[in-house]
Amino acid sequence: MFPTPIQKRSEAVRVTYQVFLPIALILWLLPLIAVASFSIRPLTDFTQGNFWGWPSSFNLFTNYGRVFFESDMPRYMLNSLMITIPTVVGAVALSCMTGFALGIYRFKGNLLIFFMFIAGNFVPFQILMVPVRDLTVSLNLYDTKLGLVLFHIAFQTGFCTLFMRNFIKALPVELIEAARVEGVAEWRIFWFVVLPLMRPAIAALAVLIFTFIWNDYFWAIVLTQGPEAQPVTAGITSFNSQFVAQYHLMSAGSIVAAIPPVAMFFAMQKHFIAGLTLGAVK
Amino acid sequence: MSPLVQGAITIFVGVFGCVGYFYAANLLLDKVIYPAKGPNIGRNINRANAIRPWLFLLPAILALSIYLVYPVIGSLIRSMYNRAGNEFIGLGNYTSLAGDPEFQTALINNALWALVVPAAATFFGLVVAQLTDRLSWGNIAKSLIFMPMAISFVGASLIWKFVYAGDPDIGIINAIRDGMGLDPLDPLQLPFWNNFFLMVILVWIQTGFAMVILSAALRGVPEDTIEAAIIDGAGPFRVFFRIKVPQIMGTIVVVWTTITILVLKVFDIVYTMTGGNFGTEILPSYMMSFMFRDDGRATAVAVVIMIVVLPVMIWNIRQAQKEMR
To answer: Is there a single domain that holds both residue B38 and residue B137?
Structure first.
């Protein structure tokens, strides 16, 4: 096998590899490790300056229990879920249709619409802020989850369409033509031929959009205000002002807020990476 | 439980609304408006097929016009009105921006961000992709390096606050300084360098992205080109820089531009770490300082960001156009 696998190289190279890579990895993850270790310490450790030593006691359950029972954290988490999941469903459903139209049909304006979707994808969201906020206010959707969901669906449709269109374009055309020759109605072709083939793309896109929306902070602070509708990204800052200087709780809160997307990533790693690769390279 | 039920109903209505719309619209087109029978059957089928794509596109186009096209135009117009929005002042907002030293700082810092972050993230991503490529536990290492990518920018900033904290007991940086016998300092208040400390956070997040894409590209480099180079006596460095990198140049450019566009939009890090103080302002965070205070100025900054992104955007569309031919 070329080039020589690292195991067969000289001793020196191998040792450097095996020693430096783990060290670099630990350094890379040091911020996370530090926060994780802070989150299981009692408060007295912080007042006595024992930040880095062995914890004087393990307060995993007390600390995380306080995050869950003495703050609005569960609320924020629930809000995030109720914003993220409908958005994922809506954006994926819409983009399956638009992707199908742009990928399969040849018609006047096809390319123009496609380029508009690409352009929409690159528009900095800042330029939408004031009109979208005013629109949301005038629709009586300000500080509601629905307001955020509607906007997210619309805005994500650009990227999702791009993604789906490129995926559908790569499917074998013969399949669809065969179905047409057989006289299958167009909507049946979409539903029974193309949609089942799109399953991997749908999975990848869903995971990707889930993290995008879960991690959104900008629209969370522009379109929502209180614990009623705020997702966890905006909630974590209010959480931190509730527990100022209580480092153990602040760390536990940060960990709790980060867990869903990270868990999602580890559970669906393959789809996540496939999504990123598909979304970026084409 | 009522919010959960509400959510479930919303999803149900949404999905079935989509499916129902799609089914009903197609049926209407095929059976009622242009039925595939009668004397005009050929013409009817052609017409129905010309309209069909628009049926699929309609919901998305509608959504995008309301939430994308209209706001962009709205912002362009709004940026030419005064703070209250009732008086047309032309380019007044822009001229007052240009005179604001804070804006100039933001512009310079933004240029720094756009140069340093994509370069650093792509470089690290490339190096990591290469180093972990043929390692038995390489995939675990990759997952761990990629993990920050799943955390939100705000979440990552809050985590990095513990790294940069001014108190030597908490901050990792100051703990190290303390260990070397140096006085503690607040890294985020060091003029000029604090910008780079903030950039580190974004590089930390984006390296995983670059690594994933580039490692896929590296795997795609044909083995025989590498084999040939090694037989010709090229060392590992030359193989990497002369053989592998040139072959994945296209992907490197894509990764670079993707991160560049992202950098121009990210405000979360500066906003949560320093709030734009101590000379760390960048355009997106500068805009946030006008949120709810002066919509005219805020939209003007947004338009400036848009103008900065525009060349990258046009270049990308050109690229897509080329691929299509």
So the answer is: no
> Dmax of chain B from CA atoms?
95
Q: Does B119 share its domain with B154? A: yes
Per-residue pLDDT tens digits for B24-68? 887 887 777 777 777 777 777 777 778 888 888 888 888 888 888
Question: Do B300 and B94 touch, CB atoms closer than 8 A?
Answer: yes
B28 and B150 in a common domain: no
Total structural domains in chain B? Answer: 2
Q: Are residues B139 and B62 in the same domain?
A: no
Contacts of A124 in chain B (CB under 8 A): 264-265, 284, 302, 305-306, 309
Q: What is the pLDDT of residues A191-247, one digit of tens each?
A: 888 889 998 889 989 988 998 899 888 898 888 888 888 888 888 888 887 777 777
3-state helix, strand, coil in chain B (%, to 5): 75, 0, 20
Evaluate whether residue B264 is within a structural domain. Answer: yes
Q: What is the pLDDT of residues B256-295, one digit of tens each?
A: 888 888 888 888 888 888 877 787 888 888 888 887 778 8
Is the peptide bond between B35 and the residue preceding it cis, with omega within 30 degrees of 0?
Answer: no
Give chain A's domains with CATH numbers.
6-61 (no CATH), 69-281 (1.10.3720.10)
What ipTM was estimated for this complex?
0.83
Contact indicator for B194, B278 with CB cutoff of 8 Å: yes
A264 touches chain B (CB under 8 A): yes
pLDDT at B203: 93
**Nearest residue of A to residue B308, measured between CA atoms:** A124
- Neighboring chain B residues of A18 at a CB cutoff of 8 Å: none
Determine, for residues B61 and A113 on separate chains, whether the beta-carbon distance falls below 8 Å.
yes
Domain residue limits at B228: 95-324
Residue with tokens 């990497």: B240
Does residue B148 share a domain with residue B6? Answer: no
Asked if A61 reaches chain B (Cβ–Cβ under 8 Å), the answer is no
**A149 contacts B10? CB cut-off 8 A:** yes
Total-model pTM = 0.85
Using alpha carbons, list the distances in angstroms from residue A44 to A51, A58, A245, B47.
10, 12, 12, 76
What the block records as the tokens of B188 is: 């985020």
Give the torsion sign (CA, A135, A139, A145, A146): negative
